[in-house]
Design goal:
- It contains twelve helices and four strands.
- The chain is an alpha/beta fold.
- It has a four-stranded mixed sheet with strand order 1-2-4-3, sandwiched between helices.
């Protein structure tokens, strides 16, 4: 089974945790004026507390960060958050925040944000993020504790149903990050190389279903890829799917993705209707 950590400062492979890099990126974004969902009741009070704390500090790098954020503004709050989540999952930790991947491996939505690393380095020191991160640990731990039981149970059920003796494959990693400084109600999944990561923001109830869905992708996507040649011979079935009006465009153009999603939906249906299966 996956080892789910109960503290945000205990790094283990395959865990429920928090990321100091993501925390720093969100602190900078909020300090620069990103206030989407700030007044929503499901948001976490820590977000406003950190932003107010940063507003009282002298941060010489903040004007440049504000300009950068303004220049990379997106059409809506979800898209705005999404690009910075991708960035945070691509760079390394403090104090350098250097890109962990070669240029050819950097996700497309991160390429235009590469220079943000140079701004985060001074911001991290000037804003005293290390201290804020340390003080935030009790609040992070509290939310992680809420997720620990239901997510662990969901992972165990999936492993049992799929007869999966371990939580994945050698060299691959499944990670869930809780981020309290982000707008509420967001669940964002990224699959970069051998790393599958889910970022969950504050919500009224734990987003267990979405995390389980992401975990099923982590387990079943490689299976579909390994059997791509066999699936290609079944591609004629995609013609029937084209008649489904509610089918997302991404699945209309990608039979492999459609096959995996269909398999995941079938597993979810079985688990939800017959948990003992």
């Amino acid at each position: 089974a996956i080892a789910w950590a109960t503290r945000a400062d205990q790094p283990e492979p395959g865990q429920l945790d928090a990321s100091q890099t993501l925390f720093t990126v969100m602190a900078a974004l909020n300090a620069a004026g990103f206030d989407a969902g700030m007044d929503e009741p499901t948001g976490h009070w820590l977000r406003k507390h950190v932003r107010d704390e940063l507003a009282r500090r002298e941060i010489p790098s903040l004007p440049a960060i504000r300009q950068f954020v303004a220049e990379h503004h997106q059409r809506d709050a979800t898209a705005e958050l999404s690009q910075y989540v991708s960035f945070a999952l691509t760079v390394g930790g403090p104090p350098d925040f250097a890109m962990r991947k070669r240029d050819v491996e950097i996700p497309p939505d991160v390429l235009k944000l590469v220079e943000f690393s140079k701004l985060l380095t001074p911001f991290y020191k000037e804003a005293g993020i290390a201290g804020l991160w340390q003080r935030a640990q009790p609040d992070i731990d509290e939310v992680i504790a809420r997720y620990h039981g239901p997510v662990s149970q969901a992972v165990l059920e999936v492993n049992a149903y799929l007869r999966q003796p371990t939580s994945g494959f050698k060299g691959r990693r499944f990670q869930v990050f809780i981020e309290l400084l982000a707008p509420p109600g967001q669940v964002q999944r990224r699959s970069y190389g051998f790393e599958d990561t889910v970022v969950v923001t504050p919500s009224a109830e734990p987003r267990t279903f979405e995390i389980r869905h992401a975990y099923l992708h982590y387990l079943l996507d490689p299976m579909a890829t390994r059997n791509q040649e066999v699936l290609e011979r079944k591609k004629f079935l995609a013609r029937h799917a084209q008649r489904v009006r509610r089918l997302e465009d991404s699945f209309r153009d990608d039979f492999l993705a459609l096959t995996t999603e269909s398999l995941i939906k079938a597993v979810e249906s079985r688990l939800d209707h017959d948990p003992g299966a």
